[in-house]
Predict the structure.
Amino acid sequence: MNLSKDRKIITTNDGSHSLYVPGLNEQYHSIHGAQQEAEHVFLKMGLDGYCLKRNVGELAVFELGFGTGLNALLTAQWAAKKSISVSYTSVEKYPVTKEEFSKLNYGDLLGDRALYHKIVDTEWEKYVRINTCFKLKKCVLDVKEGELPHGFDVVYFDAFAPNKQPDLWEVSIFEKIFKTMNQNGIMVTYCAQGQARRNMISAGFEVEKVPGPPGKREMLRAFKR
């Protein structure tokens, strides 16, 4: 199934955009608020969770699902605010088009349209210095088949839900992700499904349930010990 076909821009409850995929009857972000979800799942539970009780000057982030670029934008702003150097690698099988990016409202909502468009317009398949605190590499890649880089401290697992893309939530995928991570690294996802949790544990992770974003009671955070 080509997930890039007939995508539609929708507005979520916090005013931020998302993309709706008719073929999956699914959207890229929570309808309760795309920005709120990303800030909670990936910044608060991911980046802030990793940096808690650590004196961190730099870290490496891996994102499964570049999507609309919202997570990358928020991370770049987080890095500048915290004065932490972030090397950010993201993979995407079905890249959003330039026309779609141009219509998404994240840059305006987050007060940095220039930064957002620099992130989404930058060349794929190579590291690009976005600003003094943020370096980005976007790759067109099928995570099931492609070889992944290594050395990551934080992983954003942002695939579509298990009932929409079950093959991305199998033990083999989590084993692959586990191998990319540094010791004591963490992986976060909006998902709280029991089978996903069990598959993460089978892949070697220690997994905990933590409070979820608006509209969702729980989410999962996994550790490589």
